[in-house]
Amino acid sequence: MAHVTFKGNPMTLPGTEVKVGDKAPDFKVLANDLSEVTLADSKGKVRLISVVPSLDTGVCSTQTNKFNSEAASMGDNVEILTISNDLPFAQKRWCGANEVDAVRTLSDHRDLSFGEAYGVTMKELRLLARSIFVVDANDIVTYVEYVPEGTDHPDYEKAIEAVKQAASN
């Protein structure tokens, strides 16, 4: 199990820690139009899964905007998913207000399916722990970062490099 804190407080992350080389666990989350989305829906593409506690906070907003601005350089075979427990309506509003159109925001609020499958649900807050996963076109996890302190930024450059490497294979 990964160990993370949020504002210095230790968080409990039920579930299994995902590691490089693992087959990516499937999940069921909601798109902004309330349709269900699974990992299989983007099969054959490289997926950058950016996990944030809430889009309406500074670091989460920066993280999502960063990947949105980098999307064009990642190629057509890459899909960027940002997953949080924000309601789909709030995600849609946030994307419109921030002109985010290259990242697909998805909500795990209903079932915590993603959070449990990837071991990122902070039990004490019912929010997702900041993390990054890169999944290749064959559904193998090629990069993982569980950010140790939830209010810190992930390593953007390493994540982007991992996506580019997976896309070139």
Number of helices: 4
Could you state the CATH homologous superfamily?
Answer: Glutaredoxin
Range of strand content: 25-35%
How far the N terminus sits from the C terminus, by CA atoms, comes to 29 Å
Q: Which residues sit in consecutive blocks of at least 5 with pLDDT less than 50?
A: none
Fraction of residues in H or I helices: 25-40%
Instruction: State the CATH topology.
Output: Glutaredoxin
Strand order of the largest sheet: 7-6-5-10-11
GO molecular function, one term: thioredoxin peroxidase activity
Function: Thiol-specific peroxidase that catalyzes the reduction of hydrogen peroxide and organic hydroperoxides to water and alcohols, respectively. Plays a role in cell protection against oxidative stress by detoxifying peroxides.
EC number: 1.11.1.24
Organism: Chryseomicrobium excrementi
Short description:
With 169 residues, the chain is of the alpha+beta class.
Can you characterise this structure?
27% of the residues lie in helices and 26% in strands. The protein is an alpha+beta fold and 169 residues long. The protein has a single domain, classed as 3-Layer(aba) Sandwich (Glutaredoxin), CATH 3.40.30.10. The longest helix has 17 residues. The N and C termini lie far apart (29 Å).
